[in-house]
Design goal:
This protein is mainly alpha-helical and 166 residues long. The protein has helices at residues 8-26, 29-34, 38-63, 65-91, 95-120, 126-148, 150-165.
Length: 166
C-alpha cells in the first residue's frame, strides 16, 4: 500500500501475535464450561482487564498506538500461563493440548506458507501481494485442516449449513 503505511507494520505484527494467542486461548473457554467452572473465564478476563488497566495508560502515553497494541498483547501473554495452569488443575495434564492439537498442524503449515509466499511476492504490487499471501495462506490452512482433521472440518461445515438453512 506504499511507504506511508510502513510505520503500521510493527503495530500489525504485534496485533497479529495477539490474535494468534487469543484465538488459541478462546478455544479453552468451552472447556472451562464443560468442566463446570464458567467462573474461571470471568476470573481470567478480570485479570486481563486489570493488567490492561495498569499497562495501557503508561504504554499509550509513551508509544501511542504501538503501546496500546503491546499492552493488549502483554495482558494476554501474562494471563496465558494462569489460564493453562487452572485448566490443568481442573482437568489434569493433557486436556488443553488435546483441545488445541487439531489447530497446530494447520497453523504451522499456514505460517510457513505465509513466510514463503511473502518472499515470493516481494516485488509484486501490494494488492497482489495481499491476495497471493492471504489467499495462499488460507488455502494451505484449509488444505492441511482437511487432510489432518477432515472429520472436524466436515462437522463444522455441517453445523454452518444447518445454521444457514434455519
Amino acid at each position: 500500500l506504499g511507504a506511508k503505511w510502513l510505520p503500521l507494520v510493527p503495530l500489525l505484527q504485534c496485533l497479529a501475535a495477539y490474535g494468534l494467542l487469543r484465538a488459541l486461548l478462546s478455544n479453552l473457554g468451552p472447556l472451562f464450561n464443560a468442566l463446570g467452572a464458567p467462573q474461571a473465564i470471568f476470573k481470567i478476563n478480570l485479570l486481563q482487564s486489570g493488567l490492561l488497566a495498569v499497562l495501557l495508560l503508561p504504554l499509550v502515553g509513551r508509544w501511542g498506538g504501538m503501546g496500546a497494541a503491546a499492552g493488549v498483547l502483554a495482558g494476554t501473554v501474562l494471563s496465558a500461563p494462569l489460564t493453562l495452569w487452572y485448566l490443568r488443575r481442573l482437568a489434569g495434564p493433557g486436556l488443553a493440548w488435546r483441545a488445541l492439537q487439531p489447530l497446530v498442524a494447520p497453523g504451522l503449515a499456514m505460517a510457513a506458507a505465509l513466510l514463503a509466499l511473502g518472499r515470493l511476492a516481494a516485488g509484486a504490487p501490494p494488492l497482489v501481494q495481499l491476495g497471493l499471501v492471504g489467499g495462499g495462506g488460507l488455502s494451505v490452512y484449509l488444505a492441511v485442516l482437511w487432510i489432518w482433521q477432515r472429520q472436524l472440518l466436515g462437522g463444522a461445515l455441517k453445523l454452518i449449513r444447518g445454521r444457514i438453512d434455519d
